[in-house]
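Hmm, how's this folded?
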Amino acid sequence: MTIAGNADVYCDVAPMGELIMDDDDNLHGKRLLINEQTVPFPDIPWTTVESSNDNANIPEVHPPEQWDGQIMSLTNDVHLPQGVYVFDELEIAGQGKLTFGGPSEIYVLGNLTIDGGSAMGVSAPELTIFVRGSEVQLSGSATVLGSIVAPNASAVLSGSNEFSGGLLVGGDLTISGDHSITIDRQVAPWGDMMLPSFPGGSTVALR
């Protein structure tokens, strides 16, 4: 696991392999070396949500090319009612903002990208974003309030974004830049920021 730039990590770090940091002063927690840690992924009902979801409640989006019924690519503000939503791809860029009226679930069949000065979250706890694709990317000065579960993806956190919630990915995790990462049980009551085994051999648990 590599942590570079000006990233501050307020957590316990438990690498199975090697932990590399540009500045040891940025790690505010314990250094725990473990031989093995298995983190099971939850069962994700992809088939069920593709046929039964709340996409019909998505309001008209302007300009209309930001939502074509399958791919959501936002550069402005969209507020959705509490519910379950399914997107082929989800990208929030520029100053775009995606918020929810209550606890919600998003299922992204492809990749998740949040960058620029964009924001994504919910006023109440419990927003979970399930990603089936191979890439999760948070960059720029993006703000995310919620949890991300991505069994097949590698995650890249770059820039100066703020992440508050939980993160569970099955691939590599790369953190660079100037981040504020908070594992908040009010947002992600089911757990920590964790990675099961992946190429590179490291496991991270933040709590």
